[in-house]
Queue: 3 jobs
Job 1
Amino acid sequence: MNERRPFIATYILASRPLGALYVGMTANLYERIRQHRDDKVEGFAQRYGCKSLVWYETHGFVTEAIRREKALKRWNRTWKLELVEKTNPAWQDLYPSLFGLAPDPRVKPEDDGGGGAGVEAFLKGLNGA
């Protein structure tokens, strides 16, 4: 069982990059995606093999997530594809990043302005060097 605190989210699953898309909402994203991956949820996602979490958005209230899910379900396919491509252009599965097992591809590295020096440049900036 997962020890992480559940969070409310609207999400999109894909069968493959640019494949079938499923839009859903849940009060526990960790558990719901695991259920999809284990084929415990019957319906569209199972029928079309939508198991890869390619986009999600967290919400403070279930009512917000329901509203967003209903809005996304009314979107045409092109808009949904653009939504995923905007933050996850490689269509990487985000599920491992929920557990810290992989970097979240939606998070861009800090622009340290120093050609990839990263932490060293940041620490130098703190020390005034």
Job 2
Amino acid sequence: MIKLPFDKLDYIALSWFFVTWFGYQTFAAWRAKRGHPSLMSIMSGYRAEWWQRVLERDQRIVDAAILSNLSNAATFFASTTLLILGGLLALLGTSERVIAVVAELPFTTRSQDTIWEYKVLLLIAIFVYAFFKFTWSLRQHIFNSVMVGAAPAHDTDPEKLADYVARAGRIASFAADNFNYGLRAYYFGLAALTWFLNAWIFMCVTTWVVFILYRREFRSEALKTLERRNTVRKKAVGPQAERRSEDQADPG
């Protein structure tokens, strides 16, 4: 059995890191499914509306441009992640010099070379995870592009159109979710950097990252603005529906 050269505080900090990361990810998905407004759930509704508009348009140049922009974003982050991984791998070969530099920073706890390498390996694992998420998001955007080209005609059976919109919207949401998971890995990767200073700062910054993610996902002004549009639409649709029902009920 391999014995890791960590002390008790390092084990606690590392456990706290993974529990908060994957715990928050599970919590955010659960909260969105329970009907609580979140950026993920609100944007999922917008994607469904977008696909309804796709089927209404004869010329889908705008939709192709949107998908191209989404694919470019995923490609950019995937390429950047590869550069980061290359830098981290190079860092493994220069541990002594980097340790000497980091040791001069305030609040830094002196670490053994072996512990330092494990910390670098943690960062490598985080960004490998991010790379797979970004590339899977990119592939799903490509799937969506194919679905734009294969979209049925306007005169297709309404049930088939609704089914196509639902499936295309789900693929778009899968792509967005994986892109979001990759971005979260970047946030937590920045938190993991502070482990090079000491375990206490590592735990504090990890907690701070979760707080920032929660605020942006469930309490941000962007969410309130996006949600307000849905509320306004419901209010606009409501009186129209009432007037139509009154007209149908009035025989005169």
Job 3
Amino acid sequence: MKTVPEEPGEVRAGRHEGATGLITDVIEFSAVDGPGNRFVVFTQGCNLDCIACHNPYTINPCIDCGDCVVSCPSGALSLDAAGRVLWDAATCAGGDTCIDVCEYDSTPKARTLAVADLLARIRPAAPFLSGVTVSGGEATQQAGFVRALFTALKSDTGLARLTCFVDTNGDADNDTWQLLFPVMDAAMVDLKCLDDAIHRRMTGSGNERILASIRLLAAAGKLHEVRLLLLPGVNDADELLTRTGRWLSAVDPRMRVKVIGFRHHGVRPSVVPLREPSAEQRAHYADVLRAEGDFDLVVV
């Protein structure tokens, strides 16, 4: 999607409402996707392939293979004359059979929505909201749409008080962040591993751009938190956590850091044995990190 360039910091109303994005789903009220009560938009498409992904059906756009159509128990899926998979939300019973049978880490339920469509959903909920978070998938893969949504929110007198957050894997370049900075209040960044080799085994990609994003966001005052998803025996060694804490402390010794213990829910089968850490292990992770900086640590 192309957007017309604007001057840095410029926010205009109106024309952004026609911008569209490929959206997996929305949650009208969430207490776990940023500070306060938030409206969350999940975009379809991600540039990482994480072994511990909890939303693997958001990784790729639907390729219209049709495998899910015959499996749909409610008859909500069909093929049009051009061979595209169509989803009838009114007929859908809300099950996940289509996702379960998909071999391409996708969903036929993702749909193209305009900013105006989302504003219509946000307005009735606004009195009860603290802000809006765009997640995924990977939000920065549709940065033009995210900018258009945030611009429209900040241009609307009834919605402008809502904070605009991005939930990101951080694998984005400087130009993407510069596009978002004028309208984005903050980002929450996942750091899967400080060690590049382990990061590649976990995600299929290196971490150079992610580390650069954390530094850039912190310097710009746009970093809400860094989240560490820890998997026993994969990325939780004490020495590695010590190095991670030391690196984060060099960026900001008072950084908000969220330690997240891996959970199996929603995760694809993996050739790498994945285990959930105990409460004692999660507390130990926090202790190791706390020794390296005066972090605002949260453990979940």
